């Protein structure tokens, strides 16, 4: 099967020469090296930060770099995100706002590591996993990413169809038009035009802020709920599941693959790493502020007869129209359409990028269709097929949504574990590897994400399970596991200074050709981590199979 897809992909794609690929760097596509053509400016390949010392020039450089960080973050507030945040508001008021504050550092830590990997290596996430962990894990990651991303794209079209139906527009018009727009903005052969198009949609997403003002929230309550953790009605299984859903929709696996590849495609090198980090920090704050606005908007229904009775995003739009007025419902529906388009564009592109990395073929928005047919065909086919499925009468859209939640929960831990290991690989990052503090924070984050994703997967497939007991049990296992792993790390880790380089030398260091890297050496904590990961995936897959059998037997 793997060879079949490889042959099909190669058939429609002009291949770069070996000289182009291995000319002293790991870069797979020659167009990933050159001038940076951002939506708001250009940076020449031979330019240097030292040439831009004034504040105004630094702002201009930042504007040219701005893109991958803010797009990946805003794209995460997609159709599923809008529905989840609105549900939190409708069912619990603004009492869950504090969860978003806690997730800001999680997003920043995770995506900062991805930004470092992309700018230093010049290679996408999927390719690095293959090279450093073997083909099994590489193709597992790419295959699982493809499946969950495809299902996610379907949910984006569900969001578009629901929002457009609010305005009385048929699904048979809204979905094809949306698909055409998604394909059109990507097949331009210009990275700059693609990025400018996405920023146009991002500008529309700012409507969620006046929406939050329009519902006339109690600002003192909003402030309190943002900084003081509590839950209206107390901690229940439903509340805990919704919190897990907020975490899952805010920290998604596709984000890792997308931003790393988009950083590579934008030609960002270590020289401009600090600017791209700032782009990421800004995006993390913006996206969580936007999520807070959606919770506040949904909370307008909390004190009404609709409170606690969330159905879907369309129900929220209709509810806002009834309670606040048509303007509020209209804005919410527009935000849902916009979020779905941005999410679909980013998720689909992350999949096309991953395929290019896996098969070492041209995969760049700088290339015209004739130069990267396979890359654009995969992107277009994913969009077209996802849209077509939504148009099928009586399609199992509810089951697809369920599958997205479960599969995303399964994929997230493996993606974050690989991310941490890659950022400690000296062959890959040289002087840019993680320090002990980042490793400790990242390990804690990964442990919590593993626990939450396992709870989400288990409860999605077995709704009657006692979530409180499951959480307590997994929490104890998590604490013991982190303590044990930390002990082994301190016991086996030898203090070794990173490569001593001047700032100038460090800014020019990039990972050499993949073929020249020494094989990956697995430490004791790493071996334990991979063993735990295999066990987790085995359990999660078994649960998934059982659930599928149950649904098949019940006829759903």
Key words describing this protein structure:
single chain, 556 residues, mainly alpha, Amino acid/polyamine transporter I, two-stranded antiparallel ribbon, 24 helices, 2 strands, 1% strand, globular, disordered N terminus
Please provide a written account of the structure.
Strand 1 and strand 2 (41-43) form a beta hairpin. The chain has 24 helices and 2 strands. Helix 4 runs parallel beside helix 15 (273-299) and helix 4 (68-76) crosses helix 17. The protein has 556 residues and is mainly α.
Question: How many DSSP helices?
Answer: 24
pLDDT average, as an integer? Answer: 85
Q: How far is it from the N-terminal to the C-terminal residue, by CA?
A: 29 Å
In N-to-C order, the SSE pattern is HHEEHHHHHHHHHHHHHHHHHHHHHH
Shape: globular
CATH class of the domain at 16-396: Mainly Alpha
Q: Can you tell me the residue ranges where pLDDT is under 50 for at least 5 consecutive residues?
A: 1-23
Strand content: under 5%
Set out the fold topology.
Layout: H1 2-11, H2 18-21, E1 36-38, E2 41-43, H3 55-65, H4 68-76, H5 79-92, H6 97-121, H7 125-133, H8 135-166, H9 171-186, H10 191-205, H11 208-214, H12 219-227, H13 237-250, H14 253-265, H15 273-299, H16 313-323, H17 326-359, H18 373-391, H19 397-422, H20 426-429, H21 436-461, H22 467-492, H23 503-508, H24 524-554
Antiparallel strand pairs: 1-2
């Amino acid at each position: 099967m793997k060879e079949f897809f490889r042959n099909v992909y190669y058939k429609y794609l002009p291949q770069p020469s070996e000289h182009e690929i291995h000319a002293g760097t790991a870069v797979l596509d020659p167009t990933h090296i050159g001038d940076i053509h951002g939506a708001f400016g250009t940076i020449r390949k031979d330019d240097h930060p030292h040439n831009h010392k004034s504040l105004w020039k630094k702002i201009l450089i930042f504007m040219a770099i701005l893109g991958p960080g803010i797009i990946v973050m805003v794209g995460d507030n997609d159709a599923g995100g809008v529905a989840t945040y609105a549900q939190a508001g409708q069912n619990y008021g603004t009492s869950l706002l504090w969860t978003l504050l806690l997730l800001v550092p999680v997003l920043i830590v995770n995506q900062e590591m991805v930004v470092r990997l992309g700018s230093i290596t010049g290679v996408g996430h999927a390719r690095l996993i293959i090279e450093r962990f073997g083909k099994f894990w590489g193709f597992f990651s790419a295959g699982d990413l493809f499946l969950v991303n495809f299902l996610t794209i379907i949910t984006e079209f569900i969001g578009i169809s629901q929002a457009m139906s609010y305005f009385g527009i048929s699904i048979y018009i809204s979905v094809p038009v949306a698909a055409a727009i998604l394909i059109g903005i990507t097949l331009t052969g210009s990275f700059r035009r693609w990025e400018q198009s996405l920023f146009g949609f991002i500008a529309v997403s700012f409507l969620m802020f006046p929406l939050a003002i329009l519902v006339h929230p109690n600002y003192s309550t909003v402030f309190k709920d943002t900084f003081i953790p509590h839950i209206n009605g107390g901690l229940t299984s439903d509340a805990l599941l919704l919190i897990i859903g907020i975490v899952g929709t805010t920290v998604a696996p596709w984000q890792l693959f997308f931003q790393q590849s988009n950083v590579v495609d934008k030609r960002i090198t270590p020289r401009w790493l600090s600017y791209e980090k700032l782009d990421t920090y800004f995006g993390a704050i913006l996206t969580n502020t936007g999520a807070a606005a959606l919770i506040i908007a949904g909370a307008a229904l909390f004190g009404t007869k609709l409170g606690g009775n969330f159905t879907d995003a369309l129900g929220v739009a209709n509810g806002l129209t009834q309670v606040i007025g048509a303007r509020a419902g209209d804005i919410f529906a527009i935000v849902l359409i916009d979020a779905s388009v941005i999410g679909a564009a980013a998720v689909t592109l992350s999949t096309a990028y991953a395929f290019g990395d896996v098969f070492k073929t041209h995969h760049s928005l700088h290339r015209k269709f004739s130069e990267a047919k396979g890359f654009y065909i995969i992107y277009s086919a994913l969009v077209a097929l996802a849209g077509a499925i939504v148009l099928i009468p009586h399609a199992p859209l509810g089951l697809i949504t369920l599958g997205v939640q479960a599969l995303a929960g399964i994929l997230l831990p493996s993606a974050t574990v690989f991310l941490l290991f890659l950022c400690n690989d000296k062959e890959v990052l040289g002087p840019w590897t993680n320090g002990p503090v980042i490793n400790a924070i990242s390990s804690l984050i990964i442990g919590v994400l593993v626990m939450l994703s396992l709870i989400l997967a288990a409860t999605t497939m077995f709704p009657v399970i006692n979530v409180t007991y499951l959480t307590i049990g997994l929490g104890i296992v998590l604490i013991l596991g982190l303590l044990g792993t930390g002990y082994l790390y301190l016991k086996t880790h030898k203090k070794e200074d990173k490569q001593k380089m001047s700032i100038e030398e460090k800014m020019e260091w990039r990972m050499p050709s993949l073929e020249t890297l020494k094989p990956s050496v697995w430490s004791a904590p790493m071996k334990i981590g991979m063993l735990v990961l295999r066990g987790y995936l085995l359990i999660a897959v078994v649960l998934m199979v059982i659930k599928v059998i149950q649904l098949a037997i019940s006829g759903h």
